[in-house]
Specification:
The complex is a heterodimer. By secondary structure, chain A is α/β, with parallel strands linked by helices. Chain A has helices at 48-55, 78-85, 105-115, 122-135, 152-164, 182-199, 210-216, 234-239, 244-252, 292-296, and strands at residues 4-17, 20-33, 37-41, 63-68, 71-72, 88-91, 170-174, 202-207, 219-224, 227-233, 302-305, 308-310. Chain A has a domain at 4-87 and 169-238: Rossmann fold (3-Layer(aba) Sandwich), CATH 3.40.50. In chain A, a hairpin with a 2-residue loop joins strand 11 and strand 12. Chain A is globular and about 70 Å long. The longest helix of chain B is centred in the middle third of the chain and has 18 residues, at 187-204. The chains are: A alpha/beta, B alpha/beta. The interface between A and B is large, with 42 and 47 residues.
Chain lengths: 317, 332
């Protein structure tokens, strides 16, 4: 049995809004083993990015625990957090706004090493920067260029190099390829995979693109309106999805083939508001199978097969 | 009347900037039959949107300029028309849907009035009648007509895109140009909008140019496919021809870059490198520096157009001497 690196217990994040409490993340639980990838999937507004940020404590949790290597990080003080941040990093979606436009490529990658006093000697530090650039496939001649001179794929490589510049073990990848063209997207996905194999990294891979996540993840968790509604090993989730939302999501992906037409499940309506949710299944308004119980009672996440968790009333039938 | 609705011949569009000349579209040929949908596929910077704007005659000038070529829409030579005539055509004979529904709508005008505006301009009807028609259009795209007095911010992204579609279709155009119409939407909403567009295409019997980078969307909606790279169509054919008999190495690369959802392969096969700089395109084939099959001739000579059927052609040196050349494949 491999070691659990991160565990999330009853995590909640509510935001106050003029119209009431917005339940961005509502009581979710999961754990990730070392060296594995958890894909966190869902549509806009389902709380997946908020989850990623709360795990890194870029946002404070309203309730619940995030346990990283046995330590509850919600209780760490500033200094403790600072030490931990060397191991926990994030890669952002938009490689255009996440890099300082007035710093050169080498300065951007060097900054975390300098600030965290990992390598004090400037020469050795510079060597390390070059090493990181090689690692992520950035040609050394680019070290004095500025981000605006580079394309999206290269910029994303800078973001990855920066995330790896410390003693990184765990990375939250927040839609790292969704701003990129397909051919470049594949380059970056392959790079992330290689780095994981080489450095033993653990990823949380946040995305709305199920085909990307299937390719990449060991486990997949599907979120809907702040709730975790299904979680299973990737293979299992794709061959045997149980939750009606997961099924619809899978069928909605346009497939680039002519044969094996999957029957489309077209959902009615759109995602409802996460403000002051009712005590019901949050998907019930759009669900094609919803029954009385779905509208009156919230389903709990239950294990229906080894490793396969679903929150749906109808499954039990 | 011919069944060709849109015919573009040898179109060349350039942006003349202080830094040099951007060769955005370099000798483009496409045709769209009445009632058919052509998928125009390519990556950022391939010239897809420039092509679309050329058809609308909306290329910003300066710096953009249509250097040569011809665009024929429904028997009219678009490049010969003056601005007055063009205004009558835009929105009436040809409409366009833009990628981002958030910015395509005017935030301070109700959606009903925005739809009615197009109707009043082109159909010479009064306010009341146009408003009535606007409500009908909303119903057609699946929005309750009584929401016509609401403002764009009261709608979600998917709903706004439906409003944009309603505006585009309000005057019953013969050709609809959809520039990445679902890219900004979530998958389940994308599925709804694609479904809607498919049914409306039949209902209004219009031709459509669907610009996208997503081969999955193409497989779902299009009849014909044109793959665009660095301002040229490198491969074109019916949906079936392009999807089952991939000929151009770039098309193959595109297919191999997509993670296959039904089959977890270990590694994706990306296309190496980046698209050539449009300021400085290679002398020969624009794709040669990224191509796994490149030969010396690719660097020096523009590739010839080679036909495999009346509809399927490719621009590639590989097939010049041996028509039955097979790509390495690796897909499926």
């Amino acid at each position: 049995m491999s070691e659990v690196i991160l565990e999330v217990k009853n995590l909640k994040k509510y935001f106050d809004t003029p119209r009431g409490k917005l339940h961005a993340v509502d009581d979710i639980n999961f754990s990730i083993e070392k060296g594995k990838t958890l894909g966190l999937v869902g549509e806009s507004g389902c709380g997946k990015s908020t989850t990623g940020r709360v795990i890194l404590r870029l946002l404070e949790a309203t309730e619940g625990e995030v346990i990283y290597e046995g330590v509850n990080i919600n209780h760490l003080d500033k200094e403790g957090m600072r030490r931990l941040r060397k191991e926990m990093q994030i890669i952002f979606q938009d490689p255009f706004s996440s890099l300082d436009p007035r710093m050169t490529v080498s300065e951007i990658i060097e900054e975390p090493i300098k600030l965290n006093k990992i390598i004090e000697d400037p020469k050795a530090r510079f060597e390390r920067v070059l090493e990181l650039m090689d690692l992520v496939g950035l040609s050394r001649r680019l070290m004095n260029t500025y981000p605006h001179e580079l394309d999206g794929g290269r910029r994303q490589r800078i973001g990855i190099a920066r995330a790896l510049s410390l003693d990184t073990k765990f990375i939250v990848c927040d839609e790292p390829v969704s701003a990129l063209d397909v051919s470049i997207q594949a380059q970056i996905l392959n790079l992330l995979k290689e780095l994981q194999d080489k450095l033993g990294l653990t990823y949380i891979f946040i995305t709305h693109d199920l085909s990307v996540v299937n390719h990449f993840s060991d486990d997949i968790a599907v979120m809907y309106l702040g709730k975790l509604i299904e979680k299973a090993p990737a293979e299992m989730l794709f061959t045997n999805p149980i939750h009606p939302y997961t099924k619809a999501l899978l069928s909605a992906i346009p497939r680039p083939t002519l044969d094996k037409k999957v029957e489309k499940i077209i959902l009615k309506g759109e995602i409802t508001s996460p403000i002051n949710p009712q005590n019901n299944c949050r998907f019930s308004d759009r669900c094609n199978h919803a029954e009385e119980i779905c509208r009156s009672q919230e389903p709990a996440l239950e294990e229906v097969a080894p490793g396969h968790f679903v929150a749906c009333h109808l499954f039990k039938k | 009347m011919s069944d060709k609705l849109l015919k573009i011949e040898d179109l060349v569009v350039q942006y003349i900037t202080d830094d040099g000349i951007v060769e955005a579209v370099n000798g483009l040929n496409i045709t769209v039959d009445r009632g058919k949908t052509l998928g125009l596929v390519g990556e950022t910077g391939a010239g897809k949107t420039t092509t679309a704007l050329s058809i609308m005659r909306l290329i910003p000038h300066p710096p953009g300029k249509i250097i040569s070529g011809g665009i024929e829409l429904d028997g009219m030579d678009l490049l010969a028309l003056n601005e007055q005539r063009l205004e009558k055509i835009r929105g009436d004979v040809v409409s366009m849907i833009f990628q981002d529904p958030m910015t395509a709508l005017n935030p301070v005008i109700t959606v009903g009035d925005q739809i009615a505006e197009a109707i009043m301009i082109h159909q010479k009807v009064g306010q009341a009648q146009a408003s009535q028609k606007a409500r009908e259009m909303l119903e057609i795209v699946g929005i309750p007509g009584n929401r016509s007095n609401e403002y764009p911010h009261q709608f979600s992204g998917g709903m706004k895109q439906r409003v944009v579609i309603a505006i585009a279709l309000s005057c019953n155009p013969k050709l609809l140009i959809a520039d990445e119409p679902t890219t900004a939407l979530d998958v389940t909403i994308q599925a709804q909008v694609l479904e809607l567009m498919k049914s409306l295409k039949v209902k209004f019997q219009m031709g459509m140019v669907l610009i996208t980078h997503d081969l999955g969307v193409v497989a779902e909606v299009c009849d014909d496919v044109a793959i665009m790279y660095a301002g040229r169509i490198v491969e074109q054919g019916t949906l079936e021809e392009v999807f089952t008999e991939v000929k151009h190495p770039y098309t193959e690369g595109l297919f191999n870059s997509i993670p296959n959802i039904d089959d977890r392969k270990e590694k994706l096969k990306p296309i190496r490198g980046l698209m050539s700089d449009p300021y400085n395109l290679p002398k020969g084939c624009s794709f040669c520096d990224r191509c796994d099959y490149a030969m010396p001739v690719c660097e020096t000579e523009k590739p010839p157009k080679i036909y495999f059927s009346d509809t399927h052609f490719v621009e590639c040196h590989l097939y010049r001497d041996q028509q039955d050349f097979k790509l390495k494949g690796g897909m499926k």
